[in-house]
Amino acid sequence: MVSCCTAKCIGRVPVGTRMGVCLPRMDILFQALPLLLLLGLLGSGRVAPVPACLMALAASLPAIAHALPPGLGLARFLGSETLRALFLGAMPVATLSGGLLFSLVAAPRATGAVPPSPRRAYLMVLAGSFVESATGFGVGAVFTLGACRAMGIRGVAAGGMAVLSCWLAPWGALGPGLALGAALAQRPMAEVSMVSALPHAAWLMVAPPVLWSLLAHAGLQVPRRERLAQLGLQASMAALLLLSAYSMPPETVGLLTSGLVLLPALWHFSPPRDAAARRAALAAAGPWALLTACLLLAHAWHSAPAWQPYADLPALPLTHVAVVLWAMSLGFLAARRDGLHRLREAMGRMRRPALAMILYVVLGRWLAGSGAATALAHSIAAGLGPLAPYAIPPLGMLGGLLTGSNVGAASAMMPVQADLGLAAGLPPWLAPGIQNFAGGAGAAFSFAMTAMICGLLADGTRPPALWRGLMPLILAVPVIGWAAVAILRALA
């Protein structure tokens, strides 16, 4: 961990392990300018995600230039970090495009519209969370958007449900962000998972009322009896999250939590009535079950060949989620007569989301790699004094919002958060767990994720409309994080 982040040196910021120097603290408004501009442009509803990010990139240049150590030119830094960002961004883009293609070519041929219902909507969000736990990088959101489209749900309601499908993001994609964060904090992965599960279980219980509000926006009122049923299922998922985080391998927590609720719920609420219904259910669920099995098998191959052009960034192994998704998608593609049409459709729908995601990864990489994001974190914490521990949840959420993934949030913020917790006198396990919770939750609402969802909706919906629809769940992240810091600190 970074040695200069102590109580005496909280105003000096590390710029990353590969630079290894400390810089003086800059003015907080100067550091926050690109983020404030980005939020202002997106919040106005008049600027699309891609031009908003381009303007934020331009606004970030002064803060980045100020944060760089002597001898490292701005042009050289931007070139190097942009290449790193393209490498990092290519993985989620490939995963997302492979997931979109898989959802198009592996799905059974359409037999007509599906009648919308509150129960079916909840189950599709739950199914999307299962897919997200297996694949990560927004593939669960793609699944949920497809289900919403089949039910005739559009706009903010569909986009908000897609975001909700990422409600297990701290354990998404079999936990690479969790593993990276634990390694950076030098804490056991199972320990970070257990601490994360405590606030996350409480946060999950905020989601059903938000879903009901979204459904009401789409003209679907949720009866009281159905609300009680959904609350019961959500409470079961929260309890399973705590139990599996305590007793199971961390990589499997998301799959077990969502799967052990989803499968019995589907069987109870929508059991196949005859042989034709059983065949239809198998056709719908079979490809996703096969994908999950292949991902678990790939995850078990620890010595797979990998491409790692940058030693300090995650490698791209042969068993990566994107590789598995594309291999299976191409297999299903070959079996369909309309396969090329589906491929063109998937790539056409991915153009704008892919560009937005890449640009946001570039912004996150520039801010994190230069040390500007770290400087902002330390400036905020220094200004809070004894309240510095309570900066951990919002800073973790900020990391997720900026980078769009728990992997990115961990790489950008975990070293700072872990050292900040130690400097504030917290137990060494507390800050990493809160960071994993807040960073993963923040990634679900991130600029990149909401821009991707709006791009796939292609109906004029903008990210600020999604944020407004999800505001109670967004605000609950720092509030529950603050409560967790206070309670766990008192119990330690």
TrEMBL record:
Record-annotated membrane-spanning stretches: 28-48, 54-78, 85-106, 121-143, 155-174, 194-216, 228-246, 252-269, 281-301, 313-333, 354-377, 397-416, 437-458, 470-491
CC annotations in GO: plasma membrane
GO molecular function: lactate transmembrane transporter activity
Bilayer disposition of the protein: Multi-pass membrane protein
Extent of the signal sequence: none
Keywords (A to Z) from UniProt: Cell inner membrane, Cell membrane, Membrane, Transmembrane, Transmembrane helix, Transport
Name under which the protein is recorded: L-lactate permease
Source organism of this protein record: Muricoccus roseus
